[in-house]
Amino acid sequence: MSFHEYLHGRRAPSLEGLRFSVLALGDSSYEFFCETGKQFDKRLEELGGTRLFPRMDCDLDYDEPASEWLEGVISSLSEGQVNSAAAVPAAKASVGDQTYSRTNPFKAEVLENINLNGRGSNKETHHLELSLEGSGLTFEPGDSLGIYPKNDSDLVDMLLMELDWDPEETIKVNKQGELRQLRESLISDFEITVLTKSLIEQAALLSGNEDLKELVKPGNEERLKEYREGRDLLDFVRDFGSWGESAQEFVSILRKMPARLYSIASSLSAYPDEVHLTIGAVRYESHGRERKGVCSILCADRLQPGDLLPIYIQHNQNFKQPKNPDTPIIMVGPGTGIAPFRSFIQDREESEAKGKTWLFFGDQHFVTDFLYQTEWQKWLETGVLTKMDVAFSRDTDEKVYVQNRMREQSKELYEWIQEGAAIYICGDEKNMAHDVHNTLIEIIEKEGNMSHANAQAYLEEMQQNKRYQRDVY
Amino acid sequence: MVNPLLKAPAGPPSDVEQIKERSDYLRGTLGKVMQDRISAGIPDDDNRLMKHHGSYLQDDRDLRNERQKQKLEPAYQFMLRVRMAGGVAQPSQWLVMDDLAQKYGNGTLKLTTRQTFQMHGILKWNMKKPFRKSMLPCWTQSLHAEM
Predict the structure, then answer these.
(1) Alpha-carbon distance B82 to B74, whole Å?
(2) Least CB-CB distance to B70: which of A115, A380, A395?
(3) CB distance B73–A388 less than 8 Å?
């Protein structure tokens, strides 16, 4: 954030003599695709830098364009140098180290699948335990697990009913030439639940539908954006019909099934060869039809012990416990945000870390939504968890959230911060993270007797020093 | 001469007597544990003392195994028992009990052979209000009725 600000600000230096190239990683389901990358590319040139190699914009499936870019940059750099041949293999060796990875996911066996919410709850949160035996995969507390889910076959069947293609027709599903029947490929290989701007535009080119061609015309950006919200491929096909001369052409514009990331809820030291997850089931209604989160509902409704899930580890260097085990930690993790903190505490129990720990958890109802309650009780008893505060928003008339609990103990919280405590927030990005962030500033202001601006700067400095970390989604 | 049937049996006092003796006049650690928000239950010793205050801790038996698998503690809830002097209740007192049972309990109200009202399903942190509100009308108004 600060780098971007600085570069675009008035104090940005001249970059004459700097050679650069930008690899932009984005997601075409966003309105502005690779926008930050585009801004950096433009700005670096404006400031006088020399572009080594053209900017490459990548969607979720970034491996090919990224390695193309990397090779292009390396060859540009080594133009005129004798070592160019040595440079390229070095880049590849590090990729070939791990047998299982994001591009080659490990099929993990499901050991356990439990609904953590008590009977009568409004929520449904699944605790998954997967086996990593034979994978060679390792992770640290704070890392995430990527899962490649499958689509709901009922949804696929409804989609096929709107299309004229033969569900059993064989089609090519990727550049490697893998073949699968159409129905199976719509279940396993392609994203069918999100409408990206790019998908609609490409469909408009292949389609004869006049209304569709109208929708993508310049000037209709707002209408297009509005249309995409809350709708999926089934809605799209029902509204505008199919496209393409063949099933192969139809799927050619569909995005590859993206992986879903979940904060890991266990520690290898406590559960070797296993990885645990805490997944909230996503169900909602939109445009008159019930919608389901692809991965969360797969886990909630269709996953049994013994089933296999394609997974990989996504390391996260920005959500790690302090290197010094004596450093106190403050963890704020309402709802499924509690996951990585289970990993932290399990880890500290095994390593006998001495630093004191304070956890804030919140959800709707105490009786049914206190995730992993008996485990927290045990850890409080043994002292691995020093303090825990909970807030259940729907148990009382006035809503209480974790930030209320934080404010109630602002004095002690500030004392912990003075003692060098590191703060972690995990969970909902939309509201909770902002509310908690603002509460922290309020507390620093009040207990530290500072101005709002100074309190903000204080928190920012903590962030720079890796004392304030967030894993929010 | 003392009727031998009324003599206390020989032997040391039962362990609950020790609990009572150690309890600072039936206070125990109730003051603290009733405030603990991480569990809706209270330790065993404190539960034995609660009986002297007209309440004790229960849990929903049907959910026990299920909740254990879900890493949730038993579905703890308190029962509150109010004894009516002489077994007489005024309509106004009944209405108070009815209201409390609906607001803080699980909506049921029992009458016992020991001349008490009993309500169930009260969560630990909801105990203060029905406790207090049932004391006043049922004690003082009963006394007035007697007079």
Answers:
(1) 25
(2) A115
(3) no
pLDDT in tens, A254-292: 999 999 999 999 999 999 999 999 999 999 999 999 999
Which of A374, A380, A389 has the CB atom closest to B72's CB atom?
A: A374
Q: A148 — phi, psi (to 5°)? A: -95, 105
Q: A263 and A118, same structural domain?
A: yes
Instruction: Tell me the CATH number at A226.
Output: 1.20.990.10
Same domain, A348 and A431: yes
The ipTM is: 0.82
What is residue A468's DSSP assignment? Answer: E
In a domain, A319, yes or no: no
Predicted confidence (pLDDT) per residue in A185-202, tens digit: 999 999 999 999 999 999
Contact A118 B123 (CB under 8 A): no
Residue A324 lies in a domain: no
User: Which pTM value belongs to this model?
Assistant: 0.86
CB contact under 8 A, B75 and A380: no
A52: CATH: 3.40.50.360
Spatial distance between the Cα atoms of A365 and A424, rounded to a whole number of angstroms: 23
Interface test with A, best of B61, B64, B72, B77 (most A CBs within 10 A): B72
Task: Check which CATH number belongs to the domain holding A381 and give it.
Answer: 3.40.50.80
- pLDDT-derived band at A112 (thresholds 50, 70, 90) equals very high
Q: Is residue A34 part of a domain?
A: yes
Share of chain B above pLDDT 70, in %: 90
For chain B, the three-class secondary structure string (H helix, E strand, C coil) is: CCCHHHCCCCCCCCHHHHHHHCCCCCCCCHHHHCCCCCCCCCCHHHHHHHHHHCEEEEECHHHHHHHHHCCCCCCEEEEEEEECHHHCCCHHHHHHHHHHHHHCCCCCCEECCCCEEEEEEECHHHCHHHHHHHHHHHHHHHHHHHC
Residue A400 located in a structural domain: yes
